[in-house]
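Now for today's protein:

——
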Amino acid sequence: MRANLVAVLLAALVVPASASQADLCQQTYGKRACKGTALAPLRAELAHKFAAVMALGNRTATWQARHDATLRTIRAALNYDDKPMGDVELEQTFRDAIADYDKALKQAQGVREMIKTPSARSQTCMATWLDQGCGVTASGILWRKDGQPVHWQMMDGASGEDGIGAGIVLWAESGHGTANLIGWSFDGVVYEPPRMTQGGMIWVPGRRAGTGDGNADLLFKWDDASKAWQDIELESWRDALPGKLPKGFGIWKGVDYDFEGMGASSKLWRDKDGNCCPSGGEALLEFAITGRSLVLKDVRVDIVEKWAPRRKD
């Protein structure tokens, strides 16, 4: 099954070298990345590794959103200063994405089948990525409304590649004596225990390492058609954020999600603020789920009075 999925994805992503495919290459990667043959090996490797990651079946909506963002960056060929990328910068964009896919594939190799004995799940790390001092921090069971259990385990430790980190693995019991993987992640440096929302979704709060204090939250929704839990990607909504905030204000770090109310809150930064010290006020975000993506519907701001735009009478 996975082999067939890889074949389908590669057929859609790998661009043949024939002249008739030149337009398709440019549509996918942009003119810069398709000019000449220097980047052809990286284009092929990117497509191949992405297909392999998708075939894992882990958080496929999230990986699709990340891949789409990478392709947009490659097509635009602009750096963080909105200046044209040099050849080295463009090549590095490919290599960074490929490195992320390689890491995901390595992590997947060490994710184990669920141990049925609860005492063993509370002591034995169910993944090998945190290979330096891995310890189980918590494990437990959530219950779907129909009574089907969801098993989970949180762990922390360190990996040779990322350093100090944390991980979580979730399984759904099938009712036939087996348990299927729902998903896993090692993106965060800390996770909170999963919770089942009133709407029947699995929410795992989490945070990334670094001064950006980014989100590592996971969200899964039951899909009746596939009879499986599917992830909801929580990253692409930020693309709509600048258009919903007053000019000169931004949200620079992770937000505090509330998936009971489908919202979030955050401090507001002004353009001249330091990363440490937001001075603009507060923002309340309202979300909806469309397909398998979290969508930003509205933002309400409570701007510090001295920075608020003056009203025209």
User: Anything to note?
Assistant: The longest helix spans residues 87-109.
